[in-house]
Amino acid sequence: MRNLRLALYQPEIAQNVGTMLRFCACFNVPVDVIEPTGFPWDDKRMRRAGMDYIDLVKITKYTSFDSFLKEKQGRIILSDVKATKLHHEFKFEPGDICLMGRESCGVPDELFDICEEKIKIPMVHKTRSLNVAVAAAIVVAEAIRQIGWDI
Questions:
Q1: Considering the entire predicted model, what is its pTM?
Q2: For the chain, which residues make up each domain, given as ranges?
Q3: How far apart are CA 26 and CA 147, in angstroms?
Q4: What is the pLDDT of residues 106-135, one digit of tens each?
Q5: Where are the alpha helices (DSSP H) in 27-103?
Q6: CA pseudo-torsion sign 27, 146, 60, 19
Q7: pLDDT tens for residues 51-62?
Q8: Which CATH number is correct for 5-147, 2.130.10.10, 3.40.1280.10, 3.40.50.1820, 3.40.50.10440?
Q9: Residue 59: strand pairing partners
């Protein structure tokens, strides 16, 4: 068992969360949601994006980043445009938690400093960033490729 997790820090857009829940269901990756969210949890847009896959993913909600830190097991690997390590050159390990920041501004500096490791996805054009759901899929897929499939 690879015990890989995806953590979402204060997600703001229901459709992005639905998309991430859907791909995590497909790959048997549990999801941690660090509140508050920018939408009601039962938002129909999230359910539409996640379809019936949402019921297949294990979701744990935390009321704050502090409560998440108290419960977490494993390294926190933050995906952030300010990181210097490239995601495909980073060595993922079983138990890692891939953390994604808010769509509008990532994570606050104090959280950036707390994370054990920081990685970024290289982009040919120097644009701001990828969509958070796309970035999460890229990072989780690379982690699974390295750690191994759970099938």
A1: 0.92
A2: 5-147
A3: 17
A4: 888 999 998 989 999 998 777 767 899 999
A5: 44-50, 65-71
A6: negative
A7: 778 889 999 999
A8: 3.40.1280.10
A9: 31
